[in-house]
Amino acid sequence: VQLQESGPGLVKPSQTLSLTCTVSGGSITTNYYFWSWIRQPPGKGLEWIGYIAYSGNAYYSPSFKSRTSISRDTSKNQFTLQLNSVTPEDTAVYYCNARAPKYDYWGQGTQVTVSS
């Protein structure tokens, strides 16, 4: 399974950050796979934002739940992240991740900077 993040590298404060993860080598509907968004702000550790499960159900970290949406397009084998009302504190490298029993795949990550 290969994952590739895409989206704008620069977002203005108060706007919505939108990223897409394109999956190849496997289907996002495959049983027992969970498709996550994770980020790493500069100088900090990894932060789990949320995931969309193989069933299509989405779950979010309490820290992000109020302003996050994760959805999928099964026809394109993609899943997307929308993070609303961003601030400079949302500047980070954003990763998409696929996890299943015995498997853990990562995209290369994409830098997103929030700045006016």
SSE string, helix = H, strand = E? EEEEEEEEEEE
The total beta strand count reads 11
Largest sheet: 7 strands, mixed
Poorly predicted residue ranges: none
Q: Approximately how much beta-strand content do the residues carry?
A: over 45%
Give the mean pLDDT.
97
* Secondary structural class: mainly beta
State the end-to-end CA separation: 36 Å
Instruction: Give me the Rg, rounded.
Output: 13 Å
Coarse morphology: globular
Question: DSSP helix count?
Answer: 0
- Residue share in helix: under 10%
Compact summary:
By secondary structure, the chain is mostly beta strands. It has strands at 2-6, 10-11, 17-24, 34-40, 47-53, 58-60, 68-73, 78-83, 92-100, 103-106, 110-114.
Descriptive account of the structure:
With 116 residues, this protein is mainly β. Helices cover 0% and strands 53% of the residues. The chain is built from no helices and eleven strands. It has strands at 2-6, 10-11, 17-24, 34-40, 47-53, 58-60, 68-73, 78-83, 92-100, 103-106, 110-114. Strands 2, 4, 5, 6, 9, 10 and 11 form a seven-stranded mixed β-sheet that branches. It has a four-stranded antiparallel β-sheet with strand order 1-3-8-7, with no helix packed on it. β5 and β6 form a beta hairpin. The radius of gyration is 13 Å and the shape is globular. The model has no long low-confidence stretch (mean pLDDT 97).
